[in-house]
Amino acid sequence: MHKRPPTMDPVPKMTRADATAAVRNPLAFIAARWTPDPRTVQRAALAALVMSVVIVVTGGAVRLTGSGLGCPTWPKCTDDSLTTTSAMGVHGVIEFGNRMLTYVLCAAVGWAIIAARSQKPYRRSLTRLGWAQFWVVMGNAILGGIVVLVGLNPYTVAAHFLLSTALIAVATVMWQRTREGDAEPRPLVGRSVQQLVWCMVAASVLLIAVGTVVTGSGPHAGDSSEVERMPLDWETVSKLHAVLAWIVVTLTFALWFVLKAVDAPKGPLDRTRDLFLVLLAQGVIGYVQYFTDLPEVLVGLHMFGSCLVWIAVLRVLLALRERPEAEVQLPDQAYAATSSSIAGPR
User: Fold this and answer.
1) Which of 54, 60, 265, 332 could cross-link with 303 by S-S, CB 3.0 to 4.6 Å?
2) CB-based contacts of 245: which residues, under 8 Å, 6+ apart?
3) Chunked mean pLDDT (size 10), the chain, 346 residues
């Protein structure tokens, strides 16, 4: 008896309608043919969050190495070259390298959008969070170009960092949403605890904003040339920043105490503990850099810590509720890979 040779399933042919639909709406075309594992969607969202932090840290490295004008114009690196040249030295390499990382960030955000769009059942809110990240990245890229064109004006530099902070916020929310359902959120704590957390969030926003003023009035201007600084006393602003940090620490400790007193679920307690530990580490770095005349390495670590503090604050806020899976009835063949299933945009 002869065995029949193994055969492969035929690859479905792409019709003219399929090709037209793929050009018109490539995301829907991919979604009709691919269903990612939930962990894939979570990892894609986490990758976007990690890259949003990396771009902040590398942007800080540009400023701390005095490479802010390593590429003196935008969108080209020089008037005659799109890329850095050997005559521009290491500063040009650092500044141009940071610009190139923007494309890596775009790729990470794009991967998160594709994964979210292809998940079944389709979650419109999750996809919108991905697109929100994309548009924030585009806006911040333009603002980064303006920062260069105006010679590192400290107010535009501050706005550039704050928009990056907004990107981290959206990325954090998307990462959290990939790990929960779409049902209506159910609070895990009372209204008074929620109000305390919102006060902590507001204080954290103010802390980060004043931190940009410390940067704008401090010694690390971002370039070796004469760069405009904010006309404020750096010592006074730094002390205000420290006071706000202690306020956030106090609110965090008070929140932990209240959560223990009301026997809150493990999630909010764990997130509050994490925030408290991150704040302590960030405070140590902040005081050491202040009393050691702001060494560049410690300032860079402090910027990284600022991102971690912000993420930890948002995780506390998001831990105050739970969102189980929504109960939905999907029609049969709802996601069949047919021309009709990809014809319309979502």
Assistant:
1) 60
2) 207, 279, 282, 283, 286
3) 52 59 74 90 97 94 86 87 85 90 96 94 92 96 92 91 96 95 90 95 96 85 71 90 95 95 92 96 92 88 95 96 70 40 38
CB distance 187 to 194 below 8 Å: yes
Tokens 């303006």 found at: 146
Report the pLDDT value the prediction gives residue 282, as an integer from 0 to 100. Answer: 95
CB 115: neighbour CB atoms within 10 A?
Answer: 27
ω into residue 12 within 30 of 0, thus cis? no
DSSP-derived secondary structure letter, 319: T
Residue with tokens 């904003």: 209
- Report yes or no: 335 and 120 within 8 Å, Cβ to Cβ: yes
User: What's the burial of 279, exposed, middle or buried (CB within 10 Å: 0-12/13-18/19+)?
Assistant: buried
Q: What is the pTM of this model?
A: 0.86
Question: Element (H or E) spanning 203, and its range?
Answer: helix 191-217
84 vs 64, 95, 98, 149, CA distance in Å? 19, 9, 12, 16
pLDDT for the residue numbered 334:
42
Residue 294 CA to residue 199 CA, distance in Å, equals: 30
The answer to whether the beta carbons of residues 108 and 137 sit under 8 Å apart is no
pLDDT at 344: 37
End-to-end CA distance of the chain: 54
Rounded to 5 degrees, what are φ and ψ at 327? -85, 115
